[in-house]
Amino acid sequence: MQIPKEEIEQKILDAARKEFADKGFTRASVRRIASVAGVSTSNIYNYFKSKDDLFAGIVGPIVTKINRRFDFMESGEEYRNPDKWSYAYHLQMLNALAGFIDAEREVLKLLAFQSHGSSFQNYRETLIDRYTLVSLKFMRESQSLYPGLKAEISPFFAHNIASFWMNVILEILMHDVPRAEMTVFLREVMRFMFYGYEGLTEYDFSNMRPKPLS
What we know:
mainly alpha
């Protein structure tokens, strides 16, 4: 009986996920992946053009989800709504982040720690750069919406905050922090950041009344 192509492809991906997790992208062997998957090496290339394409087959769906979130952040729709400046809303976002990290933990580890040599090896820096620009845009536009808010932050400060958040996620992944403990930790970080920004901007976020847009 002929095995469906979808089943063969899934076996290849499952074998590749373990190989990349154990060896990292650079040291991973397509030959070993083929052996574990029970297919020939040449058959793998019927499904994936290269080892990099195979790695993309595993991490690509997660990268797409992350990129969509950043696309939304860059649109500005979120911070134009004063309700989404609240501490309660930020906690909701943290719960969503904790759920995402917990559900996609193993693939995120591949992306974060085992992608050297692949086309995703600089993805971490790409996200830091995107978050830096989002933060600067956020502060510029928030000043027009909320008169009295001091929004002068340096690009280097914004870069370091973006790097800090990236490091928070990397530490969670590195230490396999369980979901419940992760949620507590992220709440601590958010409390620190939220009220830190209140101090930085000298503005009371709880009493936000946006200036009407013309």
